[in-house]
Amino acid sequence: MSDQGTLALEEETPKVEAKLIPVYIMGKKYEVPESLTIMKAMEYAGYKFIRGAGCRGGICGACGTVYRLPGDYHIRVGLACQTVVVPNMYLTQIPFFPANRAVYNWKDLKGEAEEVYKVYPELFRCLACNACSKVCPMDIPVMDYIAAIKRGDLEKAAEISFDCIQCGLCATRCMGELAQYHIAQMVRRIRGKFLTPPSEHCEKQVEAIKSGYYNQYLDELKALGALDPKAMDKVTAEIKKLKTLYNERQMEPDTAEDDWTPESDYALLK
Amino acid sequence: MAYPESLKRLIKKVEETRPERIKRKQANEEFPALSLEERTKVLNAFHPDVKEEGRREIAVGPNKGYRICHEMVNLLEARSRVNPEKVDLSKVDYEADVLVIGGGGAGTAAALLAQENGAKVIIATKLRHGDANTMMAEGGIQAATKGWKDSPYYHYLDVIGGGHFTNIPELVETLVTEAPDVIRWLLDLGCNFSKYPDGTLQTMHGGGTCRKRMHFAADITGAEMMRTVRDEARNRVEDITVIEFSPAVELILNDKGHCAGALLYNMETAEYIVVKAKAVVMATGGSGRLHIQNFMTTNHYGATADGIVMGYRAGVPICFLHTVQYHPTGVIFPEQAEGILITEKFRGAGANLVNIEGNQFVFEREPRDVEAACIIRQCVEVGKGVPTPTGKFGVWLDSPMLDQMFGKGYVKKEFPGKHILFSRFGIDIGEEPMLIYPTLHYQNGGLEFQKDGSTKLPGLYVAGEVGGGIHGENRLMGNSLLDIMVFGRISGRNAAQYALNNAQEGKLTLEHAVNYNKELDEAGIETDRIAPMLLPDYTLEHVKAKQLSVKYEGSLR
């Protein structure tokens, strides 16, 4: 059986037998293997990304790509790192757009919709044309969250816009010149801080830690030291104790409810 | 796209065993976990780290003789990108109190805290601000916020046990005691961690945790954290300047022996830029794009160990780089998604890993290195891996069992990012399992630093994945998003205080780089390798054959 440790891939080298198809990169025709993503196809064609590539995993928004198919006027969109090429794809990336991002003072906010309107007055230039939703590579109904913000429903807007990767494609198509993704980001932060109930247990723990409540327990563990990676077999009595504590610690069951408590309340807040 | 017939047939086996496995899961009957001895055995036999042919001793520098993977040694035994003697350090292009190298979670947190402590900050980033490993982290961030069942004491035990008991105790203590405050700080910045209706934060298990302390924001925790801190950094535009597409290629010191800035390379204009600073925070992240042992990686495009190179050249020792973390579950099919991380959270929620026969073969929440080694053993030695149409092997991650246990639509709701990703390939992961194999994921070690973020080099601070010692030989899930925020904040705060109170002015110098190049000569290293790498080279041979007049400086044209 081959040792798959060194298996991986000739990650960026496609199989020789892969069928070549034509794609048009900014209007220029290249023949690329049909199974590749747009990003790998562009690299196959000889492009080296400086702009237009980031996480390569569909979440950072660096590689927004717009394309058409032959004989069809529709504008289609995808992320270059996720979208597989199709024959005669006619594409470009839009790695940057000078959308307006308003500066605001977070500490001054009280969590009201009016605070959003104040820094983004262009919000109300939205014509509800829906061009933004059509160009979102994450299938977010952008117009719907803009509508929610306009009517003051910040919770709804946060929910709808949650998967936004801030690629900026929505702003490139907006007739009202909104930067939808920047507006939504401000709204989501407001929702996170002001529209959810406070997490008191977290505050309580922070206070306990500040007061030094846990110091003695941590001192106890620190005193047991650690192994030297160059001498893993030099197991002192302290390390043995540490391993014992580790092995004997009680595991919270997978299916336990949140209010589960362990048998031992050692080192817990009482 | 969708799964081909050959795989659809094998999926039936998974479906056959599923009802029984669900019954066992609901009765809290887990596949037996390995003992510490058994863990050591499987790691020594199957973990990619133990391959002797894959490593060699470093010939120069503070850790001369340290035996680590070729890919890293190649970067340490390499010359500067630019002849240090050619750089005119008297022409300073930018000046700041604190220069943060790296625009991920650690760098941005450092910038925010430095600014709050009175510093003018520059963030120099290789790609766009936020295009970093942080953005891709999914599962969650560990913190002992639930005092009735958890405390930093238990968090400490989990961290050090997961790290094979090699972690630096003071760093672990700092990590776990600062954790709840990080959550509080992020909540205060408007970060949308998932909560119950009464405000209690939702938490889950991760691999190797004894309490459910992993906080999350749906399945895009890293993205939500990154977006939040980045947005706040953008608000402080008076004091925080972000220079994008301009990675650092060399630290600049001064004649007092302090770190005094860095030389940046504008990748778009090919110009070198001198940044003078009173303190520097190194937050350059990981090294997955080195594709160690040809493994696919979960990391972003720019993860090329730059900070390790720059710090090492300036005399900062490295540690714990003899182990690298392979995330147990990376997508192995379809090919377009190869290497992409499938969060441990699936296993934390209860999904089984099963072999070609549909049977479990490992406790799903072993620490990552043990889990990865067991999957490799199942494919390579036991021979019960699932063959992919592309000639590789993987095992199934049975996500549909979550829909069956918690209701239809659970997977789509809790893991929207992955649901969308697979739906693009014609696969509904609420109905069909995913095919996975270990993928190169995290740099466990890195530059040596103290619990206050400082390094051996006065004025140089470290934050995030580029640092080593917190996680020992193996990091637990949820502790990286924690590490970047804890030490991002600590380094930012302390770098600002250093800049404003302790920094010593002096003549800027790249002498250390000149000396390092000399050291290479003396060690007989003959090479045209240059470092830092900056970006991996994915240009294929058939293209290079036609590039008759281009000159490559390392991997860049």
Give the terminus-to-terminus CA distance of chain B: 35 Å
CATH class of the largest domain in chain A: Mainly Alpha
CATH class of the domain at 79-138 and 218-323 and 443-509 in chain B: Alpha Beta
Helix content of chain A: 25-40%
Q: Just name the CATH architecture of the domain at 79-138 and 218-323 and 443-509 in chain B.
A: 3-Layer(bba) Sandwich
Question: How would a textbook summarize the main sheet of chain A?
Answer: 5 strands, mixed
Instruction: Determine the number of helices of chain A (DSSP H or I, runs of at least 4 residues).
Output: 10
Largest interface: A-B, 106 and 124 residues
Radius of gyration of chain A: 27 Å
* Overall structural domain count of chain A: 3
Oligomer: heterodimer
Spatial strand arrangement across the major sheet of chain A: 2-1-5-3-4
Mean pLDDT of chain B: 94
- Which class best fits the helix and strand makeup of chain B? alpha/beta
Q: CATH topology of the largest domain in chain A, anyone?
A: Fumarate Reductase Iron-sulfur Protein, Chain B, domain 2
Unreliable spans of chain B: none
Enumerate the spans of chain A where pLDDT stays under 50 for 5 or more consecutive residues. 1-16
- CATH superfamily name of the domain at 79-138 and 218-323 and 443-509 in chain B? FAD/NAD(P)-binding domain
- From the alpha carbons, calculate the radius of gyration of chain B and give it in angstroms: 23 Å
Question: Could you describe the 3D structure shown?
Answer:
The complex is a heterodimer of chains A (270) and B (557). Chain A has 270 residues and is of the alpha+beta class. Chain A folds into three domains: 16-93, Ubiquitin-like (UB roll) (Roll); 106-194, Fumarate Reductase Iron-sulfur Protein, Chain B, domain 2 (Orthogonal Bundle), CATH 1.10.1060.10; 200-243, no CATH class. Chain A has helices at 38-44, 113-119, 131-134, 142-150, 154-161, 169-173, 180-194, 200-210, 215-222, 237-248, and strands at residues 20-25, 28-33, 64-68, 76-79, 89-93. Chain A has a five-stranded mixed beta sheet, covered by helices on one side. In chain A, a hairpin with a 7-residue loop joins strand 3 and strand 4 (76-79). Chain A is flat and about 75 Å long. In chain B, the strands form six sheets. In chain B, strands 4, 5, 9, 10, 11, 12, 20 and 22 form an eight-stranded mixed beta sheet that branches. In chain B, strands 14, 15, 16, 17 and 18 form a five-stranded antiparallel beta sheet that branches. Chain B has a three-stranded antiparallel beta sheet with strand order 6-8-7. The longest helix of chain B has 22 residues, at 5-26. In chain B, strand 16 (386-387) and strand 17 form a beta hairpin. With 557 residues, chain B is of the alpha/beta class. In chain B, helix 2 crosses helix 11 and helix 4 (105-116) packs parallel to helix 8 (221-235). Among the domains of chain B are: 5-30 and 325-441, Flavocytochrome C3, Chain A, domain 1 (Alpha-Beta Complex); 79-138 and 218-323 and 443-509, FAD/NAD(P)-binding domain (3-Layer(bba) Sandwich). Helices cover 33% and strands 18% of the residues of chain B. At the A-B interface, helix 1, helix 7, helix 8, helix 9 and helix 10 of A face helix 5, helix 6, helix 7, helix 8 and helix 11 of B.
